[in-house]
Amino acid sequence: MVPMMIFAEDGSQLWLRFPAKNGISPEKIMAKGNSPMLNIARRELTGHWQGQGVELRLEKSLKNLKDGYRITSSSEKIVVSAPKESGLLYGVYHILRLQQTNADLNNLNITEKPSYDVRILNHWDNLDGSVERGYAGHSLWKWEELPDTVSPRYEAYARANASIGINATVLNNVNASPNMLREDYLKKVKVLADIFRPYGIKVYLSVNFSSPKVLGGTENSDPLNKEVQKWWKEKAAEIYKLIPDFGGFLVKANSEGQPGPQDYGRTHADGANMMADILKPYGGIVMWRAFVYSPSKEDRAKQAYLEFVPLDGKFRDNVIIQIKNGPIDFQPREAFNPLFGALKKTPEMVEFQITQEYLGQANHLAYLAPLFKETLESDTYANGKGSTIAKITDGTLRPGKLTAISAVANIGEDTNWTGHQFAQSNWYAFGRLAWNHELTSEQIADEWIKMTFTDKPEFVNPVKQMMLTSRETVVDYMMPLGLHHIFAGNHHYGPEPWGDYKGGRPDWSPVYYHQADAGGIGFDRTQTGSNAVSQYFPPLNEIYGNIRTCPENLILWFHHVPWDYKMKDGKTLWDELCYKYDSGVQQVREYQKTWDRMQSYIDEQRFSEVQSRLKIQAKDAVWWKDACLLYFQTFSKRPVPYDIERPVNELGDLKKIKLNMGHHN
Hints:
By secondary structure, this protein is α/β, with parallel strands linked by helices. It folds into 3 domains: 87 residues, 2-Layer Sandwich (Chitobiase, domain 2), CATH 3.30.379; 336 residues, CATH 3.20.20.80; 145 residues, Alpha-d-glucuronidase, C-terminal Domain (Alpha-Beta Complex), CATH 3.90.1330.10. The protein is 35% helix and 10% strand. Strand 7, helix 4 and strand 8 form a beta-alpha-beta unit. The longest helix is centred in the last third of the chain and has 33 residues. The termini are far apart. Pfam families: Glyco_hydro_67C (PF07477), Glyco_hydro_67M (PF07488).
């Protein structure tokens, strides 16, 4: 009997910890053809597959499966059929996943068709190697070494993505440097594109709207200026000559000070269409971000809707509007973005954030599949009941030329890729849901734990329970009941509910969002407030707008609620708030106990790394609870319920904490 762990583990293998012993012999693999992609599929099988023979079959008749595949099995062999080679590769990873999770491989009859055509990671990586909102070390891309020196991690990255069906990547930050489009950088990009291609991954770039002026010396970057159009046209020709299957552009324009078409009195549609027309002959697309807000009198939650709804139907068919899951900014919980479904004639795609900018970064355990699912399953009522965001974006309700889903990556050069061993599960979960948004958070956690750690039920079950409750726990100790954006400015790590930045933009300060006063707390978005509720379809506008019917987990998002308001469980709002914060703290302590009991099941390094992160999380939870309750108590003037653990910090001391988290733009 071979001992379970022959070598120490550091997390570098992610969920791809296939058996170390050799797989099946090459002659037991039947596959016609000799392409780089088929050779990868063969290599994965000869390296790791322990079962019967495998036949890989290209079948054009299955073309409605797109990138998908069919798997059938008999005692002699497993047959993977697909219309494209990429489907065969995904099918091979599927059977390896079944093997690794100890699934029954008899009488398989599986048909898979991806929920979205484009399943894309957005890297917020800068050319200097820093990563905006990155908590796992420097960028994976070594621009200064490319094109000559190639890191082995580039291929490992492509393999990890292919194993969960991710087929596209944006290499650089949405706050894009025009230099990304310089000839010397495009040659570096080509090297990455060549490595990714056999794994079915297309490369995209974020582009800066003022590139023609900065790089090409045009007088301006007005999308209607013929010189500007000519510059983009020549640039596209240059890109496609190097990278024939280049995916297209991601654009952040006229948001947070980034240049855009509005600088010239043009609309988002003018800007997007100019690029779309230039990419069209090559089959490229434009993903235009709807994350726009400017210092205006309007509630920030309303701005994307106000800017984009009037442009519905004015975008070319190879433009897709990329919309953050909520209307503010990747909060632990937000109401869903009302722009979903409001655009009737324009393709829409969700943008999630895998990197935990607002959920404790690489220090807190927060499994995000429940957050992703909450958004995808939200009913917009855009076409009546059942108009979920999943159905609006996957082509079910709005048949479009192209469907897509994206997420901001949490990947860096740390040995374990994501900073926290458990943060790997969020990369994994996004890939699995992009492939099949009907999977449950529980199914995905189950697969990931078995593949990443062990399939022993004594480990899997308690750890899965911890993961499934973890996002709600974070909400409880940070911002329960619909509170949002009460983070310290700049780095978004700890609490700063007192933050009121003098002379700064009001919509960057926490007091703008929580509105606490002697009367109560919360942002009034009802008809008598900012009327953001009017952007939702009926009956949601009435449900959210009425304090009695508004879901309590969003009550402070939509209402300014009196401290003594009676909640459904009979507690006053103030007491409810106190119990929520306390429950978040208690939950993290339970996670510590759960994890400590797991020591005998896994390797020492990963065990102790997670253990030390949980200690930080437990301290941070108390910091959040004390900061928020002590500060809000200055308005509520009510005692913290006596059966709750007392604050251990003084408000004055907490106000002095200043973290230096490095530079973010």
